[in-house]
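Researcher: For the annotation table, I need structure tokens for GNAT family N-acetyltransferase. Please keep the output clean. Sequence:
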Amino acid sequence: MIKIKNVQQPLKREVVNQLISAIKRDPDVVFISRYKWSGYKDMYVVEQNKQFIGCCILKFYEDWIKLGPLVLLPQARGKGIGTKLVCKMEHDLKDTNLFCTSTNTRIHKILDSLGFEEIEPKRSPCKIRSILLKEFLEYLSFRSVFEGIRKWISLPRREKRKYYIRQRY
């Protein structure tokens, strides 16, 4: 049985290890350090039979919420769980402006099917552009650059990064 719940606490160490292991093997997911994962406190967690199988981080910025990173463990992919997760978040956050960026084609398909608007970064609201620049600078580290190069050399090529919004007025 699949259970999706909103939690406001850091992930357990073994869950962070599972996520990092899954991300290292996936060309479509950008590397996120153990330190970053351990610091996230607002998220939706997906469990199957009381076992962790994925999550999506929520980041709150004034009148916007950024969805992601969204990661499902390999055994949970291709079963519609990512769509259920995004639908649940969209329903719970129905009165809020949402945005998401991803190079993951699976995420692109989910957001397209749910009616999120794909936008060019230069046409995105100014607030989103400033958030993305701030996040880019925060993620810039030796480890993230190393992992990016390792994936670029050893794994199939990632898709182009796409930007999505769902605005509520």
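Researcher: And a one-line annotation?
Model: Residues 2-166 form a domain with the Aminopeptidase fold (CATH 3.40.630.30).
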